[in-house]
Specification:
Helix content: under 10%
Distance between the termini: 16 Å
Radius of gyration: 12 Å
Number of strands: 5
Shape: globular
Structural class: mainly beta
Largest sheet: 5 strands, antiparallel
Length: 63
């Protein structure tokens, strides 16, 4: 599994990633970069502001 990395290093190619806001009680969100809006969107296509860290989505366990 990947380690959390600063959001400034996140891929801007539209792939979904896990994101969080350091020091927040909020849960981890799946977000992706939107080229048209030039912002992060959650899975409901709502803007996601304040992300501080990200990681790749880990593979689903096989057993």
């Amino acid at each position: 599994m990947s380690e959390w990395q600063p959001i400034g290093t996140a891929p801007l190619d539209g792939q979904e990633i896990l994101a969080c806001k350091a020091g927040s009680d909020e849960v981890v969100e799946m977000i992706s970069w939107n080229f048209v809006l030039q912002s992060w969107l959650d899975r409901n296509a709502e803007p996601y502001f304040g992300a501080t860290h990200w990681m790749k989505i880990p593979p689903i366990p096989q057993n």
